[in-house]
Design brief:
The complex is a heterodimer. Chain A is mainly beta. Helices cover 11% and strands 30% of the residues of chain A. Chain B is α+β, with helices and mostly antiparallel strands. Chain B is 26% helix and 11% strand. Chain B starts with a helix and ends in a 10-residue tail after the last helix. The chains are: A mainly beta, B alpha+beta. The interface between A and B is large, with 57 and 44 residues. Strand 4 of chain A pairs antiparallel with strand 1 of chain B.
């Protein structure tokens, strides 16, 4: 094996006289696990071949397929040179082949696909007729399906950001690739100490093992850790001498940020706005304010907190009567969908009717209704923006000689002629939009003036720290005047 | 009419069989001859032979079965010599201070080390800093008139730092302190 150090430096730096290396000695940690680029070997190890003609003119380089590499009992690496060369097209002739034995510390020789946001496309690539990607004639790559995204081929490497004047130093930088491994490997390159974490994956899941031979001993008395998956990665030898750290060991339970519907008992949020100790918790929500809503205005008051609406959004899917799964889009997409209910938007109307429409508050026209924010948020100044959008359905009769004989439904976008918003405490009403400060617009009071209206309601709250602290909740088909009659 | 390929390979065309067998014999004799010298010449150049059946190398051909073309032409040990073996392990180098003495690994051109002449008001060495932006999870240790960033929160929690020294400042103020190396 040739060495790129000068003979003088090699003399100084090479450790000699150690036939058997102590694998637990941290000084030699970089050697373990031993190099093994075979099929069963270390995933990070690989052999690169440089192929030259007999005059040592470089022809090409290639990575040796793992199938052509074996490791024998002496840890020697054997490469099936003849098969390897023939497979890449060198079936006759005389060549000089130089092998480099590499261990990937960061990046890879295989390129990756990323989307415009730098997220790695991790699926197995299939560009067939029913595959998950399509490659256009101009070379552009797109995902298939409803959410088409353009993908870009990137080298899974780091680029040279700067070379010093003497050309002895280089600064490397990472590409805009959002991958924890890509970034962390790069970071670890320059660290002398490496932190190895167990993130609870099947291969790295650690559990305490109850002491053996001690009656009544439990896991709590244990100082022995075992890997939960016996076939997972073993503890590498070079961990000996390291530090074991149990993050958050003092935490006995953890209450995640409350999404108003996480807890079934939470029932659609608190009765009024609340201000948690954790300033980062910010969950927008609203409910029907029964105190300020006219008696009899709402038939199914039990749904006043819109629990089912919120659960649908949280679950992101539901089963219909046929047992088929219906996907529920995210808030922003729902807002856009709601705008496409007119005319040919029958599919959208059907979708909303089959999902959120099943749980709408049934209201009477010409009654005052008040909705109030019951959000969980920081107690700072804030602005509220309510937006009502939706449609009114009216029957349009067809007549012949003044006799009605058939009809069809007309759908018109809601406007202030169908929904009248009041602003008793100030704030600004602009059509079906109502904005104001906490005192002015924490509640919204309105009257639905027509029968057959379907109201989709948005509440957006902006904390005084700026737009970055804006959150919203959008409930399609929150209220309808379609299915409730005074005689009911 | 000329023979088809299938007809030629059927074993019923005598002249073709003779022709092929002669070529094979020559080839296999040559292979057997090289096997005795571990498939290498005096300059240690490897002679790689092709498997007649697959077109690959002969590293994996079965030489034990009597019907094998290679049966009796080479031993298992000789066959192993068709592979290239790296018999040297990765050399061991000292990772101690001597390494840095022999090889200059310090950056001098691309790295400029700066220290604050004076720390911003309210900040002293030993402080732990965080920004006022709740979405910004970066934390720093002020040391030697530099701010040293914690690579991640576990680095912070794993260290024995006095959390009472945590202070929150706008990043514009924190940025006035020159950045040092990451906290290990």
């Amino acid at each position: 094996m040739k060495n790129k150090l000068t003979e003088k430096d090699l003399e100084l730096l090479q450790v000699k006289g150690k036939k058997e290396i102590d694998p637990t000695n941290p000084e030699f940690a970089y050697l373990f696990p031993r190099f093994d680029a075979s099929v069963e070997g270390n995933e990070r190890d690989y052999v690169e071949a440089h192929i030259f003609d007999t005059n040592e003119n470089f022809l090409e380089s290639a990575v040796v397929n793992r199938e052509y590499i074996d490791k024998d009992i002496n840890n020697f690496i054997k490469i099936k040179t003849g098969t390897f060369l023939r497979k890449i097209g060198y079936d006759r002739g005389r060549y000089v082949v130089k092998y480099n034995f590499f261990r990937k510390m960061a990046g890879d020789h295989k390129p990756i696909l990323v989307d415009v946001g730098g997220n790695i496309f991790n699926e197995l690539i299939d560009s067939g007729p029913d595959g998950n990607v399509t490659i256009q004639s101009d070379g552009r790559i797109f995902t298939t399906g409803d959410n088409k995204k353009e993908l870009f081929l990137r080298e899974n490497k780091y680029f040279i950001h700067e070379i010093s004047e003497s050309r002895k130093e280089v600064r490397l930088a990472n590409q805009q690739i959002k991958s924890d491994k890509y970034l962390r490997d790069f970071f670890n390159l320059q660290k002398e100490k490496k932190r190895i974490g167990s993130v609870g994956e099947i291969d790295s899941h650690l559990v305490f093992e109850a002491p053996v031979g001690t009656p009544d001993a439990t896991k709590a008395d244990s100082n022995t850790l075992v890997l939960a998956n016996p076939n997972g990665n073993e503890f590498p030898k070079h961990l000996v001498g390291g530090i074991f750290e149990v993050s958050n060991a003092f935490i006995t339970s953890f209450e995640p940020a409350k999404v108003q519907l996480d807890d079934p008992g939470f029932g659609g949020g608190p009765d009024t706005e609340v201000h948690p100790e954790d300033p980062d918790v910010f969950v927008p929500s609203f409910l029907l304010n029964t105190d300020d809503t006219e008696d009899g205005a709402i038939k199914n008051v039990a749904n006043r907190k819109f629990v089912q609406h919120k659960n649908l959004i949280k679950a992101g899917m539901m089963k219909n009567n046929k047992g088929e799964t219906i996907q529920i889009p995210g808030t922003d997409e729902l807002i856009e969908i709601s705008k496409t209910q007119l005319g040919d938007g029958k599919d959208v109307r059907d979708f909303l009717a089959d999902t959120f429409g099943k749980y709408s508050l049934k209201a009477l026209k010409n009654y005052k209704i008040t909705l109030s924010s019951n959000s969980i948020l920081r107690d700072v100044g804030r602005k509220y923006r309510w937006l009502i959008q939706g449609v009114e359905r009216t029957r349009d009769h067809e007549t012949t000689l003044g006799v009605k004989h058939s009809y069809h439904w007309d759908w018109t976008r809601l406007s202030k002629s169908q929904v009248l918003i009041e602003n008793p405490n100030g704030g600004t009403v602009n059509g079906l939009e109502f904005t104001g400060t906490q005192d002015q617009a924490k509640d919204i009071t309105f009257t639905i003036l027509a029968k057959g209206c379907y109201l989709d309601i948005l509440l957006e709250i902006e904390l005084e720290a700026g737009e970055r602290f804006t959150e919203k909740i959008f409930l399609p088909r929150a209220i309808t005047t379609q299915a409730y009659h005074p005689s009911d | 009419m000329p023979y088809t390929k299938t007809e030629l390979e059927s074993g019923n065309v005598e002249f073709y069989d003779k022709f092929v067998n002669k070529l094979r014999r020559t080839y296999l004799n040559k292979l057997a001859g090289h096997a005795t010298s571990s498939f290498r010449d005096k300059f240690n150049v490897l002679y790689s032979y092709e498997d007649i059946n697959t077109g690959d190398g002969i590293e994996d051909v079965n030489i034990d079965i009597p019907t094998s073309l290679y049966n009796g032409l080479m031993t298992k040990e000789q066959q192993k010599k068709q592979s290239v073996t790296s018999e040297n392990e990765v050399p061991l180098y000292t990772q101690e201070i001597l390494l840095d003495k022999v090889i200059d690994r310090e950056f001098s051109e691309l790295k400029e080390v700066k220290f604050a002449d004076e720390l911003p008001k309210g900040i002293v060495n030993g402080d732990l800093l965080s920004t006022t932006d709740p979405n910004d999870s970066r934390k720093w240790l002020v040391e030697n008139n530099q701010r040293r960033r914690f690579a991640d929160l576990s680095s912070l929690f794993a260290g024995e730092f006095n959390f009472a020294k945590f202070k929150i400042f706008d990043f514009k103020i924190i940025k006035r302190i020159p950045e040092g190396e990451l906290v290990d």
